[in-house]
Amino acid sequence: MKRILILCTGNSARSQMAEGLLRSLDPGLEVHSAGTKPAFRVHPGAIQAMAEAGIDISGNYPKSVDRYLAEPFDFVITVCGNANETCPAFGGRVGRRVHIGFEDPAAVTGTDEQVLQAFRSVRDQIRDSLARFYREEIEPALPFRIRPAEARDLDSVSALLRNCDLPTEGLTDQFGANYAIAESGRSVVGVAGVEIHGEAGLLRSVAADPARRGEGIARSLVENRMSWAGGQGLGAVYLLTNAAAGYFERLGFVEVARENAPDQIKRSREFARICPASALVMRRRVPGAGSRL
């Protein structure tokens, strides 16, 4: 997983849009944004322009770069001149610092429509520049990339699951965008899926090629599916496991009593037929979903 920090002055517009756009290019990336002098809120124009592009940043908030100074990053990208000039020294390892500057849309005056058009224009400039940067600088160095599963992946995913001694029964029930695969070259090296059962999700088929373990494939896939579950409005994601409880605990899942699982989860094929009654039930709440599940 590549870690990237996008930096500007206020962390209210350009860096927030860049964070959302870069995440949308590759959900397997770990992307953060911050400001050298963070503003009070994310600019409404940035929120609206991104919403029009299908990316929700309404829950974001400006953060100070100070919180990230001791952390390692593969790239620190500055998107405004002031941040480039005042970029602080990072105590953690930084692979490379890059400046890709854009005009500040928040500085534009005029009617509401004229200001929003400025945000749209800068959004598109950021999208195009980051797409080029991703193709040229990030993608060639990735050990794997994550993308939504497609129908053509089913045979490869089934073979991977069998190689990992995991069941394939019921795989086709919801196979498709519910699943994500990790791909290295043209090979499927990992998979994870979230079945939707009412307001809850069921994480299943988490697998990584045994020859590629230790590369963070499974963890990246789980985080990808948790983010996807949030986008679907799910309140919590459940799973059943026989031997990997410790691993999933490290990913934020907690054990719950089987009888406390939602009825629709209990009626799932995996819960009712595939996994033995001795399997542990674990749950991870989806951020912002409250505590209804």
Please describe what this structure looks like.
The longest helix is centred in the middle third of the chain and has 27 residues, at 112-138. This protein has 2 domains: 3-141, Response regulator (Rossmann fold, 3-Layer(aba) Sandwich), CATH 3.40.50; 146-285, Aminopeptidase (3-Layer(aba) Sandwich), CATH 3.40.630. The mean pLDDT is 90. The chain has a 7-stranded mixed sheet with strand order 5-6-7-8-9-11-10. Helix 1 (14-25) packs across helix 4 and helix 2 packs across helix 4 (112-138). It is elongated, with a radius of gyration of 21 Å. The protein has 293 residues and is an alpha/beta fold. 40% of the residues are buried. The protein contains 9 helices and 11 strands.
